[in-house]
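Why this split exists: single-chain examples teach little about how molecules sit against one another. For that reason, every record in the complexes split bundles all components of an assembly together and asks for one structure covering all of them. Below is a record exactly as it appears in the raw files.
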Amino acid sequence: MSVHSVLHVLIVLVLPPLLLGIVNKTKAAFAGRKGPPVLQLYWDLAKLMRKGMVISSATTAMFLAGPVVSLTGVLIAALLVPLGHHPAVIAFPGDMILFAYLLALGRFFTTSAALDTGSPFEGMGASREVTFAWLAEPAMFLGFVALARMTHSLSLSGMLAGDLAASPQVGLGSIVLIAVAWFIVLLAENCRIPFDDPNTHLELTMIHEVMVLDHSGPALGAILYGAAVKFLLFAALVIDLALPFTAGPWIDWLLFVLAAVLLAVVVGVVESTMARLRLVHVPKLLVSASLLTAFSVVFALDR
Amino acid sequence: MNTWLLIAAIGLAATSGVPALCAGPSKRWGRSLATAMQVVAATCGAAAAVLVLAGQSMPPLRVAISPLVPAMTFALDVLSAWFLLPVCVLCACASVFDLGWRAGGTRVPVFLGVLAASLMALLAAQDGIAFLVTWEAMALAAFFLVATDHHEREVRDAAWLYLATTHASTLLLVAWVGTMAWSTGSFAFTTLDPTVPAAARDGLFLLALGGFGIKAGIVPFHFWLPAAHASAPSHVSAVMSGVLIKMGIYGLARLLWLVPTPPQWWGVTLLALGCVSAFTGVAFAIAQHDLKRLLAYHSIENIGIILLGLGLAALGRATDRAELFALGLAGALLHTWNHGLFKGLLFLAAGATIHAARTRVIDRLGGLGRKMPQTAACFLIGAVAICGLPPLNGFVSELLTYLGLFSALSADGATAPLAAIAITVLAAVGAMALLCFVKVFGVVYLGAPRGSVDPAADDGGPALRAPMFVLAGACAGLGIAPFCVVPALQTVIDDWPALSDAAGGLAALAPATWISVAALALLLGLAVMLRALRLRRDPAQAARPTWDCGYVRNAPSIQYTAASFAQQFVDASRRLLLPRTHRPDLDALFPGPRRFESHVPDVVLDRLLLPALRGVAAGCNALRLLQRGRVQIYVLYVFLTLLVLLLLR
């Protein structure tokens, strides 16, 4: 195991809560508030891990399987994504499909756990989550298609870890389109504004937060931590495309962390300057993300 | 030796109904003996298939029943052996399940035995005559099984519809065998000579697409399938969905085997039909309210996924890309197994659930996971597998198909855009299958009971549970250790006629070891996570109900139902699904009780075929002017005919 792999695992485990802290700090700055400390999520997680849980009498084992399976799936998926142009810890032909399907496995169990509570609100959230994921999935896969065509590679590391800008087959236009589309998918999959408001007070309008209303203690901690890691993974996909060049292994790590922080600020800015979309308009934005990647595929096929 | 194993398997299976018939419906020993014979038959058949897949060749067996009919030849080759294994597994499982089935008579054991025997013989058929005879035996046995509960009108309708469509399929296949015999000069299944004119080959393909397409349930020939699968007893549906419709896939694969270098448009057609079937199947599945109809529509989806692999294999042969052929064929063949296993499992679990809860309507169920935890766990395994999620078997075959499609992106011409479309469809279909199965599993097994659930519902006896455990174990085993089947897949690929080069090692193309690593990492990670999180109820807290968001009158009936869960999707795709809704009109500020109904009829059967056929029937009514029902008038017709003939002479 090389030193870069160790660094990869460390960044995946340690960095994610910081990014969400930065998002919240940015939002607070826009609102003229002081906001919670940047490290707040670490303290929250530490506190939740020490707590006991209240479990609804309506639930079965599925209720706890939800957070456990989705966190495990996200952590294994994290081993497949190249961070800052370093090949991922695990790379093999077809690993992008494993990546997408591990996240889908988490979604299956999270939404089932929501239905396990028997609450209509959690059912609403679960229904929205799986319906919007259906619209986001083509955008992800069309991006993979364009990248596979341009890089002749069938693994995430082969598609994203190389020096994309220097490669003659790779069109920068396609890269930009995919990066924008995947940024939209990042916002949708991580339940940020304009898709979902993590801080809303009305259960009727929530997607993700309403699915986990009944979880508490370590289970809630696992959900929050898993969400943070998922944010980092999608951020890594966007950053690999947004900075399509390499500048030496150590500088790349530094650039990656800086870019992740910057992306968190950008997400904070987006959240502060936009309103949440009405639920009926959410599919339109996701379809436009798919169309952007479809155009990138057309450009890639033309080369 | 494998010849004798196959003969024993077919003979035992065909006669397994005899003890049940002799004993009559009231005696238990008859059905037990029938099941025992079926299990032994399945073991023999599976052993023969494994021997053939391991490289042992089988000498052909010639059967001459009458001087009028050409002698029939039976032998297993590796392709038919591959399809034979799931037949044996599922027929044995269904037969055991039948023992635990309360409403069992002698009908199911008798015809299940005939069906198993005819399926085995069909796969072993090596010439056109044998193929047609066994095909018809299979179709008729399945008809009697579908019509098991024939005292219900709905079941009779489904059975007649099945009988009519399966005979349309047989008719096309008679033409198919005839065309083949005409162009090769014999009934034997041998690789077609390159000198056979292209028009004859294309005709063969179109006839096969119709004949096998009806059996496999390819859209738009799928219309018989939802009703038949919903009306048959659940373990019969498991066999029908798991292996019987796969005979259509076997036929198409056999055609590609007979015509080893197909023209490019065959592959394109198969890919296009695969996309349409997969998408339409799952879209209609999401909109269903009947548990078994929903599973039936998922069979159409999975047939579509298999066709994607098959089409890719045909394209690979047409464009001489060995790796596309290997990955496409491996994906299609493995998905045939996998779909048999997880769909069989889902139908058996659904059968046990319906058996306990006495309704198939999803929205009337709920909270059954507490009453029947083992059945719920089995259904969950099947649901995760059918969504193609790791670490189960569905993921492996979908990954192979994906890999083949991604490899096709580097091709020139129309192949790359087609592959891009197929990948997008496959991804969307995966997400839709997830939506559908979260809906079913969540509404049926989780949450609170919705009222009409039998309080005494439970997991049922060991005969109901054992077959589910076998199938669930197979799903997990193939998902965790796919490298075990790679050599067998390689054998089938290598056996393909007229292969220019050894089609690349599948072992090198398919990341079977990595799949195992990922699956084991996932299971290990789950175990570690469970320990690390110390998930336990706070002992200081009493049992509490679910947080009701401040709503004080919480009741099970306000839970999300299957219809409400799928509503956003159904609304978004109403142009395809054409749902029929009956909305209440709310005319006052405080309206009284109102009804709301919505259902999604099949677009081909209910919107196209039935109206067209009603038109034909109305047209034929005009002819009834001639039919007066009086003998004198008919004698007059005879006289007039004779007169006309006399005048014409």
